[in-house]
Structures are given as structure tokens and as C-alpha cells.
Amino acid sequence: LRMTQQMHNLSLLQSKKHSMPSSPNAAKRLYRNLSEKLKGSHTSFDEAYFRARSDRLSLRKASVNFQCNEAMFEAVEQQDLDAVQILLYQYTLEELDLNTPNSEGLTPLDIAILTNNVPIARTLLHVGAKESPHFVTVESRAVHLSTLVQEAQQRVTELSAQAVSEGLGTDSADREKQLKGWEWRARLYQRMKAGYEHARAPEAPTNVCLMVTSSTSLTVTFQEPLSVNSAVVTKYKVEWSSSEDFSPLAGEIIMDNLHSLRCFITGLRTGQRYYVRVSAYNMRGWGPPRKSTPEYASPSNWKDCSGRGPRHRGHTEALERLLQQVRAAHQHYNCRESSKLQNAGRKQSVSRSLKHLFHSSNKFVKTLKRGLYLSVILFYKDNLLVTNEDQIPIVEIDDSHSSSVMQDFLWFTKLSCMWDDIRWLRQNMAVSVSSSTALQARQKMLSAAAQLQNLLGTHNLGRVFYEPIKDRHGNMLIVTVREVESLYSFFNGKWMQVSKLQSQRKSLSTPEEPTALDILLITIQDILSYHKRSQQRLPPGLYLGYLKLCSSVDQIKVLVLQKLPNVLCHVKIRDNSNVSKDEWEWIQTLSGSESVESMDHTSDCPTQLFLCELQTAVKALLKQINLPLHQAKHFRLYTQEVLELGHNVSFLLLLPASDDVCTAPGQNNPYTPHSGFLNLPLQMFELGIVACFT
User: Fold this and answer.
1) What is the DSSP letter of 246?
2) Hey, which of 330-339, 352-361, 398-407 has the most confident mean pLDDT?
3) 147-161, 305-319, 420-434, 655-669: the lowest-pLDDT one
4) What whole-number distance in Å separates Cα of residue 434 and Cα of residue 440?
5) What residues form DSSP beta bridges with 72?
6) If both were cysteines, with which of 3, 10, 401, 462 could 372 make a disulfide (CB 3.0 to 4.6 Å apart)?
7) pLDDT digits (tens, 9 = 90+) for 524-581
8) Does domain 348-533 have CATH number 3.90.79?
């Protein structure tokens, strides 16, 4: 709930609530416990909410726990939602001491639910408020309320009798004040008792859905009862059993944290059938349970299908052995390099440091001639790190490039995962360069990367942009992009806004044919946007992805969305990423014999909900790629495996006909998607998956 009431109007709230019981000094007692800053401020609560924590800490006073707890009780009794929210904002839960009963044995939540103040009760439940532990049974609550009413009425009778017998005197004003206070409290207790007597146990929760989330777990989601019978629901009970009549119970969970109506049941037996039901609780007790839909489920995973062995059996072990060999060679190199550095002369080290300090900026390329270059974009928000000549840092790789440069570029992109190992790679590759001219270009790329690292004073050059920038002058510019956390200069450079750098370039005499550097500055916003989008990760869930490839002479490209280029074109099927054994076996029935178009939603199968979800996803995905549903009669689902990317993200794949999965050069593509798509080199796509989901 948003609060738009201004702080300086808090003292007027009580006078506006004519329908509520009034206590002469209740508002005064409540608001004197609020800080002077909150009472006197003329800003809204939304603005105050974002003040620094240091400002809030300065408002703390002595005996703050007692004052805050008393103020919270006053706010709830006065049904003042604004004051409740202010107190929850200004003070911690420990200072408010929400779950400690007062002298009457009640907590703030008890008062809210007994007066049926739903907004305040839900606000308190959201922050973890609990009912009084004194009420172990429904009957004990009724007895306690009757006692409170009797005591308050008795106190009113005693004070009234004293006022009549003693008449006017020095203590008459105080006695009148006490009498009015107890009269108000007696009315409050009577209203709480009436609210309790009028209430009934809640109805059953609604929309109880059961999902298989792994081989050993189930998840149940539900919604509030349609009618709570004039009492706020304070907790839910989830029960499960392997028997349809729930005898005996296999387990139960009491949910008193109502922030999310979702329950995870773990530690179950794979393949065992479980029945689940959910019931709600309010101050009158537990309501009737509601069975889940479907009525039962068996924990399982698509890998549990009988007769199915892992497709990558032994691959992980072989890869681990290879990595151990690489690590051993790498450690040997590092030890040898460390000994060399320790034996190096101090004079040579100092001279190199001084040379780097005074002459590093002069080694950056200022103008591009015909050749192959490497540049790095270091950015923070809308600022770029540039040289003293207001240039993006660029070094030369070679004064020419061969026809196989794209293969060398795709190899170079993998260095994004291992910038710290450039020197080690250069040494190992140097052994083979003399006998292989094909490796010379890659050795020069490593040398340029090492040079750029030395000039910038950092190893991490960021992620390689998915394609090099070319111009008609014969230049090719490889671009790496890295976002930094602050305006820290890695070398003797400076920070400049992107717009200012672009305007300076426009003011220069631009040739008719722009160079690769001009193109870089023109498209730099697109490059930065691509870099930011490629860092985004999908939220957990099961997705339907569309696999479409196109090939050229030297590479294969994958169709992806521009707004999320690190995954396939996709739509979300559901939040649950697990594909159960039953669902996977049903998918197998579509292999060859049934097309996507002919999936029958009227079929009688235990995976009815999954079928409907999948049909909806297929239609949405075909619409996204601009393909009418009737043209998808040859489309099919990939039935070899579920692609599990990590972080609870899984993919089912939708494939075109076999001949149309990969479009060859010169071949007409019958499936032309809308704008907003990108053909990404396969290697760049793989790197994006690795960076985001591993």
C-alpha cells in the first residue's frame, strides 16, 4: 500500500475517523513517540523512505523499544494504517518488538485480526508479525476476551462509583480522565469479542496446483480462500501422503510466512505417488482442506526414463583430465616466470616503469591505415576512458589481414575467458609459430592484446564484440568492451562522455568514406547496449526456444533476439524448469508421428496442463518469428534431451523441417522474422551461454 499522506498531517488523522472509537489522549500518546523529523516534515512518505540509513539512526532515542512498542499498539487500536506503516519504516522489528504480548496478553496482530482490520493485519503479516502464544486453543482465546471485557467493565463501574461518591475535588479531573480511558477500552474489547464471535473458520484455499520440480521434490502453489468468514487468514497447512485418504500422513508444513503462497516439499522418494492438500487457518481454527490439481504427482525428472543413458557419458571425466594437464603446465610456467621476475635487475625494472609512465599514451594508434587493429572500450555509465588525445585506446595487430581472418577472430573471442593467461599462451604458441604460418596471425593478436594490457595497466579487457568493424579502406577493427565500477583511470588517460566524444568527431572533417574508427564512434551506443543486454540472465523457468541457423563460407550463425542475444529466440512455458518423466514420455510420442500443429488438447493424458502450456508457447513463438501456424506443419520438438543451462533455466527446442534448420549461402529462407533479431556467430553464442549460465 502506498502512503501519500504527508507527515505534518498525521495529527489530523484521528479527527477524520469519526466512525472509530476515540480515546482522548490516544493520538497524543501515539505521535509523541514518532520522531520530530517525521512529524514536522512536509515531504511524502515515499520521499522519506529513500533517506539514508544514517538519517534514521540519528532519530533513535532512549528507551526506544518501549516507546515504539507502545506506539504500535496505539496505532493498531486506532486503526491508523498510515501510522503503522511509518513505524515499520522508521524502526527495526527488534525495536518495535512486534511479537511480544502486552500486559493484556495481546500482540498488535491479535488486535488487528480481532477488529477485522484486513489492511493492517496483512501489513503486519507481511513483516513477520505473529499471534500471541497464549492462545493455544480456540477456546482459550474466547475465555481471554471475555475476561478482558469483564475487567474493563468492572473498572468502569468502580471509577463511576468513586466519581459519584466523592463528587468534585482535587482528583476529579484525573479520575474523569481515567474513566473515559477505561470506557474507550471497554468498547474496544467488546468490539474485539463481537468480531471473534461473528467469525467462522475459513473456507478452503483456491487454485491449489501441484508441480514436479525434481526427482525428490514437489511444489504446491495456492491462493487465498474466496471467503475468509470475517477473519484474516494467518497461516496455511500443507499435508502430503502416499495414500489417497491421507492416512497415514507422510508429512506436513505449517506456513506462517505469507509473503509467497508457495510451498516446497523436499526429501521425497523418486517415482512414489504423492497426494497433497492445503487448508487455511484463522482465529477460529482450521478450515476444510482442498486437494491439489492434479490430485497426485510423482517426483521425477526427464532423465529418469528407463533405458536412457547419458549422452555425454565419459565426456566430463575426459575433459577434467585434460584440464588437469593444462593446469600442471600452467603452474610450471608461472613458477618459472616468478623466478625470472625475482632475478631481474632493479635498474631495468625501474627504467621500464618510468618508460611506461611517460610514454605509454604515445603507443596508442591515432589514425587507422590499412591493417588489423584491436581497441578496448572501458565505460562507466555514459562515460568512456580515452587517451590524452581524446581517442579510444587502439593498438595495431598487423598491417594486413588474410582471407582467413574471420576464423582467427572467432578464435580470439575465446580469450574473453582467459585474459590473465595471455603471456602463457604466447610462450606456448611461439614454439609452433615457426613451423606453422597459419598461427602467425594469432600470435600477433596475442601480442597486441598483451601490449594493450601493458598500456592500460589491467589484464581484463572485457568481452569481445560479436563482429569486427570493417571499412572500405581495408581496415578491420576488433573491439572489446568492459564495464567498470567507478571512474578509475587504468592508465594516464581521462574520462569523457560518449556524446561529447561523438560531437568532437563530427566537428572534424569527415571523409566521404568513414574509417572503421568513425564507424566505431557512430555505433558505440549500439555496441554498449549489446554488451549490457548480453549480460542479462533469464529468470528461472522452462522455455521454448527456436533453433534456426544460417551458414556462410567461413562461419555458422544463430538467430537470436537483439534484446537478449545470449539465448535463442524463446517464450516462457512456465516457472517450473523441471520436465517430469511423464511429460518427457509424452513428448517422445510427438517424434515423427505427430507435428506441432496437430497436438490434440482434448487427449486424455495425465499431462493435460503441460500440453496446454506447450501449445500456448508454440503459438506465441511462431507469432514472434512471423510464421503462420498452418505453415508449421513440418515443425517438430527436439526429443533427444532437455537443455539445462543452469540457474534453474531449461529449454525445449522447436525445430523447422530438417532441410530448413540451417540455411546455406544462396538458399531462400522461407522463415523471415520481424525486425529485432540478430544472426550471431555460433562461437559468440556459445560464449554468451557460458558467461551467463555457468
Assistant:
1) -
2) 398-407
3) 305-319
4) 8
5) none
6) 401
7) 999 999 999 998 999 999 999 999 998 887 789 999 999 999 999 999 999 999 999 9
8) yes
pTM, full prediction:
0.77
Could you tell me which of 178, 113, 120 has the C-alpha nearest to residue 145? 113
Q: Cell for 111? A: 488486535
Residue with cell 610450471: 332
Mean per-residue pLDDT of the chain: 81
C-alpha closest to that of 684 among 567, 591, 597:
567
pLDDT (0 to 100) of residue 298? 94
For residue 293, what is its C-alpha cell?
Answer: 490439481
Residue 563 phi/psi, 5° resolution?
A: -75, -15
**SS3 string of 2-25?**
CCCCCHHHHHHHHHHCCCCCCCCC
Closest CA to 279 of 269, 265, 289: 289
429: its cell numbers: 604458441
Separation in Å, CA 422 to CA 300, 319, 442, 451: 45, 22, 12, 10
Question: For the ranges 10-19, 433-442, 475-484, which has the lowest average pLDDT?
Answer: 10-19
How far apart are the C-alpha atoms of 71 and 34, rounded to whole Å?
8
Burial class (CB in 10 A: 0-12, 13-18, 19+), 109: buried
Cα–Cα distance, 573 to 617 (Å, whole number): 6
Per-position b or e across 537-552, b if 16+ CB within 10 A of its CB: ebeeebbbbbbbbbee
Instruction: Answer for the pair 27, 11: CB distance below 8 angstroms, yes or no.
Output: yes
Query: What CATH number was assigned to the domain covering residues 206-300?
Result: 2.60.40.10
> β-pairing, 636-637 with 649-655?
antiparallel
Query: How many Cα atoms are found within 13 Å in the side-chain-facing hemisphere of 375?
Result: 32
Q: At 600, phi and psi to the nearest 5?
A: -95, 115
401 Cβ neighbours under 8 A, 6+ residues apart: 371, 372, 441, 476
pLDDT of residue 28: 46
Q: 372 pLDDT exceeds 70?
A: yes
Residue 222, pLDDT > 90, answer: yes
Cα–Cα distance, 193 to 143 (Å, whole number) = 10
Burial, 218: exposed, middle or buried (Cβ in 10 Å; 0-12, 13-18, 19+)?
Answer: buried
Q: What is the rounded CA–CA span in Å between residue 433 and residue 423?
A: 15
Tens of pLDDT along 266-275?
999 999 999 9
Taking phi over 0 as left and psi of -120 to 50 as alpha, with beta for the rest, 128 belongs to: left
Between vectors from CA 490 to CA 487 and to CA 491, what angle results, nearest 5°?
120
Here the contacts of 599-606 (C-beta below 8 Å, separation 24 or greater) are: 606/294, 606/582
In this structure, which amino acid lies at residue 537?
A: R
C-alpha cell at 356: 611506461
Could you tell me which residues are beta bridge partners of residue 377? 481
Mean pLDDT within 455-468: 92
Alpha-carbon gap, residue 22 to 175, rounded angstroms: 18
Shortest CA distance to 109 belongs to which of 283, 255, 254? 283
Are 198 and 190 in contact, with CB atoms under 8 Å apart?
no
Residues in the chain: 694
Half-sphere exposure of 473 (CA within 13 A, CB side): 19
Asked whether the predicted pLDDT for residue 29 surpasses 50, the reply is: no
